[in-house]
């Protein structure tokens, strides 16, 4: 995979400015693995793009469940 300087700047902005994440050694590997899986799933050429990277970053977060969902009777 290749990455342009502009895309690298965008990644750094998304991770560390917009989402205010701290640097972590697993981030590059996570993004690349996510990109490979996404491209394979979409049956598209393997590449890094803003969309794929943003999707990978969003997959780092786990939304807190609404407690009412856990107590709702079926």
Beginning-to-end CA distance, first to last residue? 48 Å
**Strands, count:** 0
Largest sheet: none
- State the helical fraction: 55-70%
> Measured on Cα atoms, how large is the radius of gyration?
16 Å
Shape: globular
Tell me the structural class: mainly alpha
**Roughly what is the average pLDDT, rounded to an integer?**
80
Count of DSSP H/I helices: 4
Order of helices and strands: HHHH
Low-confidence stretches: none
Quote the beta fraction: under 5%
Q: Which key features would you list for this structure?
A:
4 helices; 74 residues; mainly alpha; globular
Tell me what the structure shows.
With 74 residues, the chain is mostly helical. It contains four helices and no strands. It starts with a helix and ends with a helix.
Give the arrangement of secondary structure elements.
Layout: H1 5-18, H2 27-42, H3 50-58, H4 67-71
């Amino acid at each position: 995979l290749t990455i342009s300087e502009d895309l690298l700047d965008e990644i750094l902005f998304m991770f560390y400015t917009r989402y205010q994440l701290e640097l972590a050694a697993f981030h590059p590997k996570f993004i690349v693995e996510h990109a490979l899986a996404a491209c394979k799933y979409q049956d598209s050429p393997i590449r890094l793009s803003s969309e794929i990277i943003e999707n990978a970053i969003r997959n780092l977060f786990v939304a807190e469940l609404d407690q009412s969902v856990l107590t709702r009777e079926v």
